[in-house]
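$ fold --in a.seq
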Amino acid sequence: MLMPLSPPPVVDILRFNTCGSVDDGKSTLIGRLLYDSKSLMEDQLEALERSADLTGGGQINLANLTDGLRAEREQGITIDVAYRYFATARRRFIIADAPGHVQYTRNMVTGASTANLSIVLVDARAGVGEQSRRHTAIASLLRIPHLVVAVNKMDLVGWSEDRFREIRAQFEEFLPRLGMRDVQFIPLSALGGDNVVAPSPHTPWYAGPTLLSHLEDVHIGSDWNLHDFRLPVQWVNRPHHPGDARLHDFRGFSGQIAGGVVRRGQTVLALPGGIRTTVQEIHTYDGAVEEAFCPQSVTLVLAHDLDVSRGSMLVSPDRLPGGGTSLHAKICWMHPRALQPGRKFLLKHTTNTVQAVVTGIEHRLDIASLEPQPAPAGLTLNDLGEIRLRTARPVFYDGYGTNRLTGSFILIDPGTHETVAAGLLHPPTEAVRPEDTDYAI
């Protein structure tokens, strides 16, 4: 008798980034993870072997798996953010390999913006440098929930436990000021594979997990905001199938759930407009469901025909977001031309784009001391600072610490359409009042 097949286990996705100073071994570490976890295709292995004599001194150069640009291979550095994907039986992974050069800090912010976990590599010989502090501070500003400090090249310091403890103590001097709670320190050698996938016989004094084991086990289920329902509407779904009567009057609102849980029959509020309605149907790629949650992509069918379009937001009426035209935010400035008060931009927040003007720059963060420098004349390329903005229309948002999706934005130059800054919103001073939202989007 044939037994029915059981459904495959649900495997979640961990997004993580690697960062650190130049030549700390970020690309080699990712290559080692891919190589030792047997996540490489045959053609990738063949390409590594062909390039060994050119870039690896006759040996396989694992960094070539992520350093894809010719300039990166020639210089032996990472310039752009490289994304790689692999999976084990327990979890799927998306890796962002961020550059270590200070002039590419903006690339690091881009790579870390969606990460659940950040790996900061430190060369055991050099110890904690300015870039180590900078990248840890950025991980803190981006509210990345989990941090791994990978002390690399331990083989070059004789696998010294004292050196590992010394570097750990250097980090623990400033970590409390950054508010990082879940921090794991791991001694390893990316080149040799020690403590990356398999435990190393060279570190009998280390009783913690290997890097891959920690990546597989770290709990990320609570990283999303599952309390405050938010659905920024991306587009209005009106399929036209004349022969299918079921779809003749179909009108759904599609987007990615940015927070909370939505269920059939649930009351929701449409912003702007402040009109209440109920959810009649919830559709996903796999079909209709009774409930959905962040960060699923869904199409909701509502009980009433409302004036809702791209840029609108469906929210829980008993857990309202903030709203207003005056915003307070931390930003990373990403453009060679300095930011100065009075400049106008397009502000893109979730699916909504509005005109905005920078009304003031409150301070610039000194990465070396982690102290704010008040009232700077402007922000230059890769600077982290705090600004105030005024928008042409109210924006509905949460503080970045409450919801990373509805608490972030980018600034776009209206002339060139270049992204010039990434921003993290401070908590709103008060929740939006539905009776005050009667205006066109």
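$ fold --in b.seq
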Amino acid sequence: MRQDFVCAFLIMLMAAAFPPVSSVVSQDKCGSESQQIEPDKTKPGASTTETSANGKNVAAKSDEIRPAGINSAQDKLVLSTGLVNVIISVTDLYGRFVTGLNKDHFEVFDDKVKQEIAHFSDADAPVSIGIVYDVSGSMKERISRSIRALIRFIETSHDDDDFFLIGFNDRARLVQDFTTSGDQIAGHLMLVPPKGSTALYDAAYLAVEKIQQGRHTKKAILIISDGQDNNSRYTYNELRNRVREAGVQIYAIGITDPATDSLNGYGRSLLEEIARMTGGRAFFPNGYNEPELVEISTRIALELRYQYSIGFYPTDTTGKAKWHKVQVKVNPPKGFGRLSLSYREGYQSFKR
């Protein structure tokens, strides 16, 4: 009886020493085995414990989940997130969009070093679009025409595009958050009375920040204004630097007045530069010519749909923060003639 008591006591000690989540097989002095308890297989990372020949507890291999190819604790999974994506518009001598090209027709260079194209697409992909709309006092006589042109732009866009609207005069305001409804965009503009001065840089900066929340990988901003900035807190240099980091295409419709040409000189050059550096374009129609406004808005919408997407992993792996100059060349099949390309001029890398 004393022996039975000792055996029972030893079993209790062994049970206390090993938690019930571990798979334990113990041998007692009575020659019997204790109950085997299976670990909870639904909990990755739960470890098991074994008893070695000398009676010491030894941690068994962890029941952790490892990605394919990871064989030991010393192995590391490195995910490359350095893909640089370049959106390219291709047009012929008559300004018509050129489709039907493939990966082999393009070459891409990073600081003059040819890169291997890792991703290529010519799909009609949806876009997240920010509309930056001038509601300053000088737009009063033109707002109805430009709204109708904007409605045409939305109607021509991809069915799954989403839009947000920023209105600006003395300051910039988010008038409409992301929506797929063109009616909501137009409806808000109808209710905003044009007045005040022009905080264009602030509005564009706000749009660059907001567009990062878009649900689509492809992103663009459309600026519609009739005058140069005269009331922003941000400077043009600050806006330009932010745009270079963001990798978003910017299109601009600079509405002009034939009598006064309020958008001249400096104002035109700024819109042209910010559009060019991002791979977009700037247009300067007559603000009183509604057919011209509609035509340009339609053209921008179609251009966003007929573009090529090229991605590459830079071979420059120095890890230094710097500006990289991008160059894309096209070698079309015979009969295409001379083609023009629009794409962003470079990208900013950051120190790793």
